[in-house]
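the two lines:
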Amino acid sequence: MKVITFRQLRHRWRLYLLVLPAIALVCTFSYFPAATAVFRSFYRWDGDEISEYIGLENFYRALTDPVLGHSFYLVMILILSNFIKMIPSIITAVVIHRIASERGRYLYRVLFVIPMIIPGMVALLIWKYFYDPTVGVLNGLLNSTGLMALLQHVDDWFGWRVFVENANPAWLGHPKLIIPSLIFWGFPWVGVVGVLLYLAGLGNIEQDIYDAAEIDGCGWLRKFWNIELPLILTQIRLNLILMIIGTLQGWGLIFILLGDSGGPAGVGMVPGLYMFRKAFRESEAGYACGIGLLLFFLTLALTVINNRYVRVKK
Amino acid sequence: MTDAVTGYMRAKTRRGRLNELTKHAFVLAVLVFSFYPLYMMLNISFKTNKQFYHQPWWPTWPMYPANYSLGWETVGAAIPNTIYLAVMQTMGVLAVALLASYVFARYRLPGHNLFWSALMILLMMPGVANMVPLFTLLRSLGLLNSYTGLIVPAIAGGQVFNIFILRNYLEDTPEELFEAAEMDGAGALRQIWNIVIPMNGSVLATLACLSFIGGWNDFLLPLLIMRDPARLPIAVSLYRLEGAYVREWGPTMAAYAISAIPMIILFIFTMRFFIRGVAAGALKG
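prediction for all of em together
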């Protein structure tokens, strides 16, 4: 690492030219829009010509907006469920790691990469088809295994009025089913990149440690808790941060599955989608920028909390 | 060895074998679920609507490969478009990020920390908050409905992640190599071309893969700025196809499958890099 002082800059200033493209691009397409967003959040702005300074009104409005409130509630549910949905990847990685044969481990690794060839959009649309009320796989499966009858009994018992006889539940169409469907989406929740990352972390464990644990009579759970989990905590934390940011800001999934209204009665509305609607469908771009700012601070707060409390010992 | 000991050993290996079987069974079960969407896509893509309503689960005869030519009519045009977009994005992202990470890895310039944190703080910035101003920016630059308007923001958006990863790798390149090159009078660009790129092939291939996959999946920005149906990238075409009123399941699924073909080709050539790259990236991360 060479330290370049101000005096040496006379000969070395060209190095700045190499950083310049990246910085210029980032300034133009990230910082400038971000600054505009902050500025515009104090305006009544239609995204075009009409704009009028209104002070903090957008923020007052956001804090009392029931639709926005509900969307934040939903996003918290989704973050919690996505947190739980991280577990299958961890378990799968640990199980693959513990398989004795080297060839088996490599083969599984390769096999897990293959479903990645499905483009993201296609995966979503196929799941949308799975949820289809009349021809979808999920209802077909429930009907043919008799689980649907069971669900109807349970429904009778609790009085949900969701699973009724002779009618297929519309997973993405019934207000009470939308949130469960959004949570169930992507079953069995094993992410390729996640598994590969965890496997890489697990690969650092020396065989000696296992042998020592074996002699001490460690069971499989103890081994997981004391040897394997600490080694992949870095990766888990990284995935956790990325998941939280992604879930808070994500709206593509909901947009594709439920449309831009967030499904019937707006049950599936998330903040990102609400922003999109306000800005591009209802010409309230200023308000959308205000929501974006709130979202930024929330992201920041959660990231800071995560960095502070989910600490990893190196 | 006494009988008791061999008996113990035998019991232990038997238990070990059972253990191994359980693990394999678990992984296989997970794999079955992971492959299920892929299977259903291919399965339905060979069916007529009638066959599909009658028997969606298993393959039916006769199969209708003709669905694929119908599917091609709907998304075929989007494939070269998207390949162009994804390739341009990938090359742009890597070229710009390589230059910057070379400097960040080798030198401490005045302002180093400022530049570095200016990049890293973007990891936390919600892209979604920038959406509206980005749209108006592209509009005032006259880039709406143009590929430049898709490629350039994507290059900008990829910088942080790629510089972050590349810098880690570049720092491990032996300094003597650079010094020797400098003795021979090679400038920064020559050094990047002759030393950095050949020595970091694996990570560059991984990053290129990720970037290409990202470009292939790009949906929201094109949805916002592209108006011309003939020039849509694949994700938006598929989305519009799904919204079509009359649903022909066979050709629709065939179109889905067609949209995966470039990914399959990419996968065949780069899988090894990819698996190794992700593994190595984790160690550094």
